């Protein structure tokens, strides 16, 4: 048995928190998610601001955030690689020291 969960639509009647304009649903889609008892159909709605300037600013901010997250992830991966290389070097050094004893 599957049940339908509606996510997101509850807030469409509320004004935009940024500019106070009306908001509308730009698109809806359904996703079937597996659960312990079977599947659940989750209905999603993407809500956008009817104020184009506000929505554009929001999109820009979203893009910025995505790029920022990507940059942080890349930096972290580089750090991890450097740390790994460093620990390998340390291990080699230790091995060399031990062989001398
Ligand atoms: Zn707005």
Plain-language structure description:
- The protein is α+β, with helices and mostly antiparallel strands and 101 residues long.
- It has one domain (3-73).
- Helices cover 49% and strands 30% of the residues.
- It contains 1 helix and 3 strands; from the N terminus they run βββα.
- It has a 3-stranded mixed sheet.
- It is elongated.
- It starts with a strand and ends with a helix.
- The model has no long low-confidence stretch (mean pLDDT 86).
- Zinc ion (ZN) binds next to loops.
How big is the Rg? 25 Å
Number of helices: 1
Cofactors, ions, other ligands: zinc ion
Low-confidence stretches: none
- Average pLDDT score: 86
The assigned structural class equals alpha+beta
Oligomer: single chain
Can you tell me the number of structural domains? 1
Cross-sheet strand order for the largest sheet: 1-3-2
**Relative strand content:** 25-35%
Order of helices and strands: EEEH
- Give a count of the beta strands, DSSP E runs of length 2 or more: 3
- Share of residues in helices: 40-55%
Shape: elongated
Largest sheet: 3 strands, mixed
Q: Cα distance, first to last residue? A: 70 Å
């Amino acid at each position: 048995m599957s049940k339908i969960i509606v996510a997101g639509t509850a807030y469409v009647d509320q004004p935009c928190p940024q500019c106070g304009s009306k908001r509308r649903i730009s698109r809806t889609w359904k996703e079937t998610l597996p659960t312990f008892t079977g599947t659940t159909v989750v209905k999603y709605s993407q809500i956008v601001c009817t104020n184009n300037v506000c929505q554009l600013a929001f999109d820009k901010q979203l893009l910025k955030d995505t790029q920022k997250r990507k940059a942080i992830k890349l930096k972290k991966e580089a750090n991890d690689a450097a740390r790994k290389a460093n620990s390998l070097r340390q291990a080699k050094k230790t091995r060399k020291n031990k062989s001398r004893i």
